[in-house]
Amino acid sequence: MNTVLNVWYGTNEHASLSNLAKREFQDNDGRLYVSVEHAYQSWKSGSFDQVTYSKPWRHGSKFVGRRARTVDNWNIKLMGRLILRSLQNAWFRETLQDLPHDVEFSHTQDRGIWKEEFP
User: What are the structural domain ranges in the chain?
Assistant: First the structure.
């Protein structure tokens, strides 16, 4: 049986692994993101959103950027790529290495696409 970790920020079960948790990383252009959510909201429309990027992002911040591009699950694939990109954060990488090999991540919440589609 797999170990299930709920990484939804609102539960505080494993919030440090959440897309809202502070886990700084840079993109290919050198932009620094505070969290995966910061990067996701800045890019989810399909192009960089400077207004959303410039908001006062901190640990747990949730600002909504422009409407998400959803054709062919583009937004879901983006979240997956950003989570992988955040692996450049040494703490996050080490935390993941310490987890059981059969771990399954969940994003249990009361509503929204990420309940079923969190990468």
Answer: 4-117
Handedness of CA 17, 89, 25, 78 (dihedral sign): negative
**Assessment of whether the complete model's pTM goes beyond 0.85:** no
Distance CA 48, CA 110 (A): 29
Q: How far apart are CA 99 and CA 79, in angstroms?
A: 21
Give per-residue pLDDT as tens, 46-62: 999 999 999 999 888 88
The whole-angstrom distance between residue 14's C-alpha and the CA centroid of its chain comes to: 13
Give buried/exposed letters for 65-76 (b at 16+ CB in 10 A, else e). beebeeeeeebb
- What is the distance in angstroms between the CA of the first residue and the CA of the last residue of the chain? 20
Instruction: Enter the tokens of residue 99.
Output: 């987890």
